[in-house]
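Is S-adenosyl-L-homocysteine placement plausible here? Inputs below.
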Amino acid sequence: MRLGIISALHEEQQGLIEAMQGPVSHSHGMREYTLGTLWEIDAVCVLSRIGKVAAAMTASILVEKYGVTHIVFTGVAGSGDPKVNVGDIVVAESLLQHDMDASPLFPRFEVPLTGLQRFGSDLVLSEALAGAAEQFLRQQAEKPADSALEIEGFGLQHARVHRGMIASGDQFISSAAHLRQLKQDLPDLLAVEMEGAAVAQVCFELGVPFTVMRTISDNANEEAAVDFMRFVQTVASRYAFGVVKNLCQRLAA
Ligand code: SAH
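Reply from A.M.:
I modeled the complex. Tokens:
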């Protein structure tokens, strides 16, 4: 196994690269690919940058140039459901491009010539990731109060793991009305972000198992931009680091 670990934001990847044994960096196509060993797993870490094209390019290069056999995406997202709160983790069961619309030639949301609206994540990898996420939240809850995530004032002591549908599009969603519209069309939506479904399509087409984890940073409403920045700076990196560590240890066992 060679695991590709993609993140959208610098803050989410810093710690992982520091934890890598024997890291070697390669520059290609305006991205830095860092190869090395993470908790006994042969891994390649890279920042996708933001949006579907950026993410698709990154996933393709990981597979074709760096030979990864599995991909995991870690990032933050806006909540797409009232029961999904800031600080919760969503592990994707399926991903959809919410801004794909080639109707009337193809049904809305269907990716032309694939016959699919939704791309399923790998079951085994997602199971391991959800287990790793649950374990991380338990580890946080067991820590003394002053070192646990709740001190940041996010009230994360009740954080939960959800599994279900994540939608991606080239839009930062920061309007309750926009989200309401999406939710009407996609009632099982759990989270909105800007990369996951692009990675999903690439992995589907190349036959590479993948999964996506998103920590909820905001409610995709008018406060989203402020909440997002605060969350990314204080909490997101710790989530990504803790969950990927648990995941690698599970995969190596
Ligand atoms: N201003 C930011 C832009 C980040 S875009 C910056 O300077 O870096 C938001 C990133 O977080 C994207 O990678 C996306 O996947 C995710 N995200 C978080 N909340 C989101 C929301 N409400 N809508 C869409 N994407 C969101």
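Short version: The chain has six helices and ten strands.
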